[in-house]
């Protein structure tokens, strides 16, 4: 199977998906999902990028990210994954006595690659936002999208701050 190519087209929004290593549920706790969100906000600031929406699930993440003329999605995702991986492992060491069972020496938090889809229309952007917000409901994690605290649904529906600056 050919390797997927990442296209960094100026002005296009990237619909990102990346998963935990072997789809392990490293993001089962609110604390680890909060880490992923905090690192996203930091990366947005450092890379002069914007986020149109996101959801953090127990074993994967979706986000809609856009940058300027010189923005490259691969370095953005690399920093996001590397920094959040380090912080999640530190959390596991600090908070969980069974860290070595959960994440043995050398076990990565994230899969090596990520999936990137270039969103080139408002219709497709709205479709991806709806898909992300409904992800926890479809997975049986929340009764409705507003109950899941680790997505941008509350911003869109209620105008609430969610830890990440959203640019619709």
List the helices and strands and how they pair.
Blueprint: E1 13-19, H1 30-46, E2 50-56, E3 60-66, H2 73-95, H3 99-102, E4 115-119, H4 122-138, H5 153-158
Antiparallel strand pairs: 1-3, 1-4, 2-3
Helix pairs in contact: 1-2
Structural commentary:
It contains five helices and four strands, in the order E-H-E-E-H-H-E-H-H. The model has no long low-confidence stretch (mean pLDDT 89). The protein has a single domain, classed as Alpha-Beta Plaits. A four-stranded antiparallel sheet has the order 2-3-1-4, sandwiched between helices. The chain is globular. It is α+β, with helices and mostly antiparallel strands and 168 residues long. The relative contact order is 0.22.
The SS-based structural class is alpha+beta
CATH architecture field: 2-Layer Sandwich
Order of helices and strands: EHEEHHEHH
Regions with little confidence, pLDDT below 50 for 5+ residues: none
Q: What can be said about the biggest beta sheet?
A: 4 strands, antiparallel
Query: Largest sheet, order of strands side by side?
Result: 2-3-1-4
Strand content: 15-25%
Name the CATH homologous superfamily.
Transposase IS200-like
User: What's the shape?
Assistant: globular
CATH topology: Alpha-Beta Plaits
């Amino acid at each position: 199977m050919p390797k997927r190519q990442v296209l960094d087209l100026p002005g296009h929004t990237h619909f990102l998906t990346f998963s935990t290593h072997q789809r392990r549920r490293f993001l089962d706790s609110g604390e680890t999902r909060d880490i992923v969100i905090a690192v996203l906000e930091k990366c947005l600031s450092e890379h002069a990028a914007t986020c149109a929406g996101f959801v953090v699930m127990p074993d994967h993440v979706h986000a809609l990210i856009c940058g300027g003329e010189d923005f490259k999605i691969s370095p953005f995702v690399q920093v996001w994954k590397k920094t959040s991986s380090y912080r999640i492992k530190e959390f596991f060491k600090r908070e969980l006595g069974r860290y070595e069972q959960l994440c043995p020496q050398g076990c990565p938090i994230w899969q090596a690659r990520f999936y990137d889809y270039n969103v080139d229309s408002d219709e497709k952007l709205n479709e991806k936002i709806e898909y992300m917000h409904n992800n926890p409901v479809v997975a049986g994690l929340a009764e409705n999208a507003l109950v899941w605290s680790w997505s941008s649904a509350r911003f869109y529906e209620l105008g609430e701050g969610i830890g990440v600056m959203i640019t619709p």
